[in-house]
Amino acid sequence: MAETTRGSRDGTVPTAVAIRSAAVELFHRQGFEATSQRQLADAVGLQVASLYNHIKSKEQLLATIMTEVMEQLLSITERRVEAAATPEERLLAFMSEGIRFHAEHRLEALVGNTELRSLSEDNRARVVELRDRYERLLESILRECAAGGTVSVPDVKMATYAGVAICVHVASWYRENGRLPLDEVISGLLAAYAPTAALERKK
């Protein structure tokens, strides 16, 4: 049976889940370097020595968080894109899912955006590889759209960078209790991003 730790409404959550959640919160609030093993252990009610029964190191924990988040984003986005019938639908699916994911996983995304420098060379390379794969997916969709002539994309590379940036930076300003519900935020950003603006108006 998996070990549990205090931290959920019913009193316990799996220890690995509690450690990950506490790490995301601490890394976001005070930064990776400023977060001590003692603080992380205290946050989940463990002794420091016991913490290492669940993680290899603080840096490996950060790498796992960043890798898992990117893998989850890619998996969800690729499924949505593959289910779309046309390049235009694939573009809308990519952007919609990217915006939604970064809004719903704000802290993980913000940690990923700020702490890449804290990873070892090998771990950093793995995260960068996943980010590049995400970027290449959007670039390939935009090239399809441009080739079909239904979407104006004068510079595919620039449109790729802009599209990824729109998705990623949602994490820095979106709030669940903010002025607009998430579906309206998604529609508004699709209308503001040039390659999807005309497609959004046709919906």
Automatic annotation (TrEMBL):
Keyword DNA-binding among UniProt keywords: yes
InterPro entries: Homeodomain-like_sf (IPR009057), HTH-type_TetR-like_transc_reg (IPR050109), HTH_TetR (IPR001647), KstR2_TetR_C (IPR041490), Tet_transcr_reg_TetR-rel_C_sf (IPR036271)
HTH tetR-type domain sequence ranges: 13-73
Superkingdom per UniProt: Bacteria
DNA-binding residue intervals: 36-55
SUPFAM superfamilies: Homeodomain-like (SSF46689), Tetracyclin repressor-like, C-terminal domain (SSF48498)
Keywords, sorted A to Z: DNA-binding
Name of this chain's protein: TetR/AcrR family transcriptional regulator
Native organism: Nonomuraea ferruginea
Native organism taxonomy: Bacteria, Bacillati, Actinomycetota, Actinomycetes, Streptosporangiales
